[in-house]
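> example.struct
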């Protein structure tokens, strides 16, 4: 749950709300390694490391990192008001308050990173780091050279032109084209909308790579913890390389 920083500090019994505000203004408080001097910012103490005068406050959960092979027909949000199955239902033994890093559509399969490390999540999703995601799309409709060129150079969507993408044709599967698409933007339903913009329908979509991570032999619906070396690479991609060793 997100709360104002001064409320978190006072709630942890360190100081009154007023004194906590003074501590923030004086530069004595940092969140995820960065000093925060504004009073209005809100954070979730379970997801972010809040340090006052060099000491972490409260009880923070151990950071955990899972790679999930999401099946079709489940939501990639943490919970659903309508009681539909979510990706977190696939990790029943994980007690930490984890979240998916970004979203995959209900019917999209494949690689989804799940963690309670809010700083890593923010870095990986921040547009400035241009973290790459690769999708395998099974597409109905002929893909001419012109259409491939448009997909590569940018197509007009209602929320603006897409950035250049890497697009590679793979051998056909029956009457469907198979295309590998690598993008670094993270717009809603982006790959499906890109193909729709060139008159093609995506009938199956799978994310096969994210931020250098690959599914390997991981079966659909299964998950595993990241290795130390995978995590180190993710931190570097998310601009956190210099924070290695602080954790
Ligand atoms: N693009 C889509 O269209 N759907 C996804 O789930 C991910 C990327």
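> example.seq
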């Amino acid at each position: 749950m997100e709360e104002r920083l001064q409320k978190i500090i006072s709630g942890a019994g360190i100081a009154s709300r007023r004194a906590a505000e003074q501590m923030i203004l004086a530069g004595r408080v940092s969140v995820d390694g960065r000093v925060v001097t504004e009073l209005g910012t809100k954070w979730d103490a379970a997801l972010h490391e809040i340090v006052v005068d060099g000491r972490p406050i409260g009880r923070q959960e151990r950071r955990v990192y899972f790679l999930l092979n999401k099946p079709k027909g489940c939501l990639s949000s943490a919970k659903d008001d309508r009681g539909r199955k979510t990706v977190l239902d696939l990790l029943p033994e994980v007690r930490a308050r984890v979240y998916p890093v970004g979203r995959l559509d209900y019917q999209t399969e494949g690689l989804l990173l799940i963690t309670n490390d809010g700083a890593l999540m923010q870095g990986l999703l921040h547009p400035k780091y241009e973290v790459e995601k690769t999708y395998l799309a099974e597409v109905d409709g002929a893909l001419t050279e012109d259409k491939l060129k448009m997909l590569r150079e940018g197509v007009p969507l209602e929320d603006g032109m897409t950035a250049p993408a890497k697009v590679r044709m793979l051998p056909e599967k029956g009457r469907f084209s198979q295309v590998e698409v690598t993008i670094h933007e993270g717009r809603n339903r982006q790959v499906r909308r890109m193909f729709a913009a060139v008159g093609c329908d995506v009938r199956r979509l799978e994310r096969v790579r994210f931020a250098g991570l690959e599914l390997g032999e991981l079966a659909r619906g299964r998950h595993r913890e990241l290795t130390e070396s995978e995590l180190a690479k993710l931190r570097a991609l998310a601009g956190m390389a210099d924070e290695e060793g602080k954790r």
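> remarks
Residues 243-247 have pLDDT under 50 and may be disordered.
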